[in-house]
Amino acid sequence: MSIKKLFLRAVVIAVGLGVGVAPGDVVAQGESTVATASTSNPQPATGFVAYFESTAPTALPGHSFLIILEVHSSKEIPNLNLEFVLPEGWNVQILGPCGETLPCPLPAYAGASQRIPLVFKIPNAAAGIYSISVKFLPFDQQETLKIKVWHCLEPIEVVRHWDVERGEIDLSREGRVTYERLLWAVAHLGQKIPYTCRSLQPTDIEALVTEWCGL
Questions:
Q1: Would you say 50 and 136 are in contact if contact means Cβ atoms under 8 Å apart?
Q2: How far is CA 185 from CA 1, 72, 79, 94, in A?
Q3: What is the DSSP string of 2-69?
Q4: pLDDT tens per residue across all 215 residues of the chain
Q5: Where are the domains of the chain?
Q6: Could you give the 3-state DSSP secondary structure of residue 130?
Q7: Which one of 51, 76, 78, 99 is at 20 to 30 Å from 29 when CA atoms are compared?
Q8: How many angstroms separate the CA atoms of 151 and 100, rounded?
Q9: Any residues with CB less than 8 A from the CB of 206 and at least 6 apart, and which?
Q10: Would you say 205 and 186 are in contact if contact means Cβ atoms under 8 Å apart?
Q11: 3-state DSSP call for residue 78?
Q12: What contacts 24+ positions apart, CB below 8 Å, involve 40-48?
């Protein structure tokens, strides 16, 4: 039996004892998930299409938030410019493959999909759903990106993005379940971990283990 399956069995037995909702737990009101991006249909006149993909369903006030922009063009574009209309107090960075900040314009290659990381800096006072206009030049094509900002996330999302060494959440990178994050979550079973509105439940641990094992 593999180590992952042994770990899965041990955790399932451990959480099978059950942990109730901690007193004072509050469940965030409103939609549990909000589409954080609009998608466009291919434009016959330009052969250019753009999609947005979010790192989590909800961003946090005062934290950076990753959006992946995926573009596909039928022809090579030496200078693809992005123009953003941002809410007041927001900033955005375009990141390269090594995490460095890239200038605009960017090249787009014919017939190949390109993933461009966009990191939005969100003000401390932000709350609600924000619309961001993104214009793609030279096509004069415009898309709308919507980002929900709220003060808490589901515990599973926090675990996926938790920096165990720093003891802080990091929504500026793509989230995933790792062994270290899973151990951290198990150690906090039944507790309200940071940036959540409810305690970490046995069902959360089981879902995290299943995701980590790739089952």
A1: yes
A2: 24, 38, 45, 32
A3: -HHHHHHHHHHHHHTT--PPPTT--PPPS-S-----------TTT-EEEEEEESSSSB-TTSEEEEEE
A4: 455 545 555 454 444 444 443 433 333 333 333 333 433 433 434 688 889 999 899 999 999 999 999 988 888 888 888 889 999 999 999 887 655 666 666 778 888 888 889 999 999 999 999 999 999 887 778 899 999 999 999 999 999 999 999 999 999 999 999 999 999 999 999 999 999 999 999 999 999 999 999 85
A5: 3-28+152-213, 48-149
A6: strand
A7: 51
A8: 28
A9: 11, 12, 15
A10: yes
A11: strand
A12: 40/141, 40/143, 43/139, 43/141, 46/139, 46/141, 47/73, 47/74, 47/75, 48/72, 48/73, 48/74, 48/77, 48/108, 48/136, 48/139, 48/141
Level-2 CATH architecture, domain 48-149: Sandwich (2.60)
Which residue bears the tokens 């200078």? 79
Structure tokens, 20: 């109730």
Q: Quick check: 83 and 108 in contact, CB under 8 A?
A: no
Q: Which amino acid is at 83?
A: E
Neighbouring-strand partners of residue 170: none
Backbone angles phi, psi at 4, to 5 degrees: -60, -40
DSSP state of 147: E
